[in-house]
Amino acid sequence: MSAVPEPRRLLRSRRGGGGAALSSREALFLLIPALLPILALSVAPLVRGIYLGFTDSRAGLGVPTHFIGIDNFRALVHDSLFVNSFKIGLIWATSVTFIQFCLALGLALLLSQPLHGRWLARSLALVPWAMPSVITAIMWKLFFQPQAGVLNELLYRAHLPGSNIDWLSNFGWALPAVILVGVWAGMPQTTVALLAGVQSIQDELHEAAAVDGASTLRRFFTITLPQLRPVIIAITTLDLIWNFNSFGLVWVLTQGGPGHSTELPMLFAYNSAFKYGEFGYASALGDAMVVVIAFVLIFYLWGRLKETTA
């Protein structure tokens, strides 16, 4: 019985102790099917959008576009509506991120305990994450509905003030109501990340601290939080970026109203582009958002680099 000779390429790779090696040209050729959609659907629109921020591009067929330098950015700085939307965006992003982190941390600690029905509680905690943002917004809009909403009905039956408030159309309550919805919708992924971090902490650390007489609160601040620090930094950074770029949830709830009181930067850009046809101006706002997000990412990566080199 004659042996079938193996290809020289495989023989060479086996002598080296590894699998079949590919040249850089062959590896690049295999990556082309994955790179083409990314280049066509992500990189090219991003580059085009950045370029439009330096032009006077407007909606319409045959409308000439001219390069105007940084004029759009100068206009943004002096645009009170943009400054207001940026402030609202910061309030929205920081409030939602902080509140959902605190609640998610408490929920993660609770779900890490050996409770009865823990599997069911963990499954229910993921429900807001599994729902599309538009469905979530419609559901909460019905909840806040002034005439037949659940919230006002509960306040009326409990004889509490506020049963006649139109929560999403009130200047004082629209933003807090939207923040509440944002916290509810974004808490599951934060809970999952923190729960994974809590479960990765060795039980021996808590047991040793308990033997030394450390209370539950002291163990939380000296063991749990330090061990969770990498997870906390990562998930809060991502949450801050996601929340700052929010659009669909707030658009369905209030469309930026009343009176621009819930108009986040993405809603301002949408109105500028598709309501007023100012494509160049809206793209300049997008460029500014890219700079802000890049700054947040650089700050996060710099912190991670300092931790690894310490």
Could you describe the 3D structure shown?
It is built from 14 helices and no strands. About 5% of the residues have low confidence. The chain has a single domain, classed as MetI-like (MetI-like fold, Orthogonal Bundle). The radius of gyration is 26 Å and the shape is globular. 71% of the residues lie in helices and 0% in strands. Helix 4 packs antiparallel against helix 11. It starts with 7 loop residues before the first helix and ends with a helix. With 310 residues, it is an all-alpha fold.
The whole-angstrom Rg is: 26 Å
Give me the CATH architecture, please: Orthogonal Bundle
Top-tier CATH class: Mainly Alpha
Estimate the helix proportion, in percent. over 70%
Q: How far apart are the termini? A: 63 Å
Tags for this entry?
310 residues; MetI-like fold; mainly alpha; globular; 14 helices
Quick description:
The protein is mostly helical and 310 residues long.
Can you lay out the helices and strands and say which pair or pack?
Elements: H1 8-15, H2 24-52, H3 71-77, H4 80-111, H5 118-125, H6 127-130, H7 133-143, H8 150-157, H9 174-199, H10 203-211, H11 216-244, H12 248-253, H13 265-275, H14 279-309
Helix pairs in contact: 2-14, 3-14, 4-9, 4-11, 9-11, 11-14, 13-14
